Each structure stands twice: as C-alpha cells, then as structure tokens.
C-alpha cells in the first residue's frame, strides 16, 4: 500500500457498504502518514455529498485514520473546546492521493468534557437490512465501539490531552510552508 507524504494534500472518500460514494472532502493536509496511521488537518474544505450538494467545513479539524481500527475520528477545534465526531467505519486504505473508507452509519459525538452520544443507530439498522451487512461486520463494529468508548474514558489516542496541541502545531507549520510556497 502506498503511504501519503507529510505536507501533501489528499482527498478523503467515504463510501457506503454497497460501494457507492457517500461523501468527499476535497483537501486534507497530511500531518503524519504511515502504513497504520494517517493524521490530517483541514479547515474550510469543500465537502461534496453523494447527491451533489456541497458545503464548507466550519472550523479547523484534525482527522485520525487507522488501518486496523474500525472507526475514524474528526477533532473539531471550536472556541469552547474540542468536539470529536467519530465515524464507525472500515479501516482506511490509501490509493493514489485518495484516502478511502466505508462508512457504517453509527457515529459517536464526543464533547469537550468527554461525555458522548451514540448517534444514528436507526440508520445503521436500516442500512444493515438494506445492504445486507454480514453478521461479522456487526460483531466487528460492536467490538470496535467498545474499544472506542474505552479510549474516550481513558483519554487515549486522539482523546489524549496533548494530542490536539501536537497536531494543531504541526498543521500550522505545514500551512505556513504552503503559504510561503504560493
């Protein structure tokens, strides 16, 4: 598998289990790229929905993708703290400037105080029936949801206190380099 280079930009492509595109983030700056982890940053990036609608992200975000975990984490930096939006998803694959994953509907919204809400359980149940998710996918997602909730409670990974400071600083560094090269 190819690995994106730090400082380059990639598109993020989210698919559904049936193979159809769900959502595309036009530009995310790679802050770390290894076989197992991609950490990126973006701000006011264009997002295109499957129906063609577009919108811009509102705040700077640090994005965390893992090649083994069945979730990805978007850390949104707002004035009143960091909010996290977690997509229960397949592990990422990286393919020629495109970071890709399958979105499995369940989401977890985490607030700055580390309280959280599990979202879209009804959407997951509907899509599980409509797209015939195999039982093994359900088991994997439930196990990974438990792992994720453990990370939140233990403040591990992107929920660790220093994660945002480290990666926001790196994001600002690469943005400055891009501005100087423009």
UniProtKB/TrEMBL annotation:
Has nucleoside phosphatase activity towards nucleoside triphosphates and nucleoside diphosphates. Residues 18-156 form the DUF402 domain. Gene3D superfamilies: FomD-like. SUPFAM superfamilies: FomD-like (SSF159234). Belongs to the Ntdp family. The keyword Hydrolase applies. This is Nucleoside triphosphate/diphosphate phosphatase. The keyword Metal-binding applies. NCBIfam families: PRK13662.1. Keywords: Hydrolase, Magnesium, Metal-binding. It comes from Sporosarcina ureae. Mg(2+) 1 binds at residues 87, 103, 107. Mg(2+) 2 binds at residues 105, 107, 120, 123. The active site is at residue 23. Its cofactor is Mg(2+). It is an enzyme of class 3 (hydrolase). It catalyses: a ribonucleoside 5'-triphosphate + H2O = a ribonucleoside 5'-diphosphate + phosphate + H(+); a ribonucleoside 5'-diphosphate + H2O = a ribonucleoside 5'-phosphate + phosphate + H(+). InterPro entries: DUF402, FomD-like_sf, Ntdp-like, SA1684. Its EC number is 3.6.1.15, 3.6.1.6.
């Amino acid at each position: 598998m190819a690995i994106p280079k730090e400082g380059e930009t990639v598109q993020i492509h989210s698919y559904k289990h049936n193979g159809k595109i769900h959502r595309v983030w036009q530009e995310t700056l790679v802050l770390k790229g290894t076989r197992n982890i991609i950490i990126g940053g973006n701000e006011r990036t264009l997002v295109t929905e499957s129906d063609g609608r577009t919108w811009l992200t509102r705040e700077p975000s640090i994005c965390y993708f893992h090649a083994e975990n069945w979730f990805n984490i978007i850390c949104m930096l707002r004035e009143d703290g960091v909010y996290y939006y977690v997509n229960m998803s397949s592990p990422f694959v990286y393919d020629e400037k495109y970071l890709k994953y399958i979105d499995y509907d369940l989401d977890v919204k985490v607030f700055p105080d580390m309280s959280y809400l599990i979202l879209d359980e009804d959407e997951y149940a509907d899509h599980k029936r409509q797209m015939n998710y195999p039982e093994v996918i359900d088991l994997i997602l439930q196990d990974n949801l438990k792992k994720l909730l453990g990370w939140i409670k233990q403040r591990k990974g992107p929920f660790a206190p220093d994660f945002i400071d480290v990666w926001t600083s790196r994001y600002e560094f690469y943005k400055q380099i891009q501005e100087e090269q423009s």
